[in-house]
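#struct-queue
[09:14] JT: dropping the first one here, sequence first, then the structure tokens:
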Amino acid sequence: ILLLIRNPKDLAASFYHFSNGLAAFPSYETWDDFFTDFMAKKIAWGCYFEYLSEWNKYADQENIMTITYEEVKENPALVVKNIATFFGIPLTEEELQLVVERSSFQSMKKNSEKTHGSFGDVLFRKGDWKNLFSEDQNKKMDKAFEERIAGTKLGKKLKYDLYCKA
């Protein structure tokens, strides 16, 4: 099992735009409305902190590999190599580079019309949590993270201080 996790602020900002981009989901007139629902666990698929807490129970099992979105951004070649090793898939250097190139955000966005149709515009967009969060919202999210997930294995893996502090 490959478990990909993301810092909660990026996830919230991304899900806000995702929700507003698809007719099948409730849309939100403002970021503030979405943030209130997000923190109150009133969004599709429930509470992200509960999701992380549940997965944390299994994080040490040998058949589970956890990576963060931030790790993928920092060193995609190393992450792809580690995933291939975890699944027992031998990759030549050429194959590794091809996977890295084709799975880059830029490449997926460029090809999104072919691969995902109009849905691609909703999926492939840059994050912007720092432009959405108010100071108060930032503090609320930081507090929720500290109280609910910071001390866990997955919480520590997220390197919250590094990626989420404004």
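[09:21] JT: and here's the second one, same format:
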Amino acid sequence: RRQYFDTHALVCLLEENGFTTQQSEVIVSALVKIMNTNLDMIYKDMVTKVQQEIALQQVMSHIGGVKKDMIILEKSEFSALRSENEKIKLELQQIKKQVTDEITKVRADNKLNLNLEKSRVKELHAQQDRALTQTDRKIDTEVADLKTMLESHKLDNIKYLAGSVFTCLTVALGFYRLWI
């Protein structure tokens, strides 16, 4: 092993300071053994460049595998979210159609009621003012009720749509955060 100091110069220095040649050589020999033992322990803990490159390649291949798995997972989750979103859209369209049908039925019923009331007014000319006032009140109440019901349905649809959109956004952001 290569020594990092001049052993002969150390022996000479020790002899100059009162040690015998044999004592100086034993001391220097002990120092060399101690240094070699320490260096051996240090070298055991060290990694060679080849080992370091192999470990780095293994880590990089593992990272590549994880990235592929994340991409596959992201695509499958995204397609599942897309299909769920389509289902929700179809349900919303069905609800919208049902609401429209109900409004049409209520309007037809109101028109029928209005026509009946008009025919009664013609038949009972004496009670015309009273019946007309009652009919107007009924119409106003039902129109107000219809407007209230329509606004309620609109708000329910908007809440459902907003909830769905925020749910989809939350899930997408969660996956985005997991991916990053």
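[09:30] RK: nice, looked through the second one.
[09:31] RK: DSSP finds four helices and no strands in the chain.
[09:31] JT: good to know. The longest helix spans residues 49-123.
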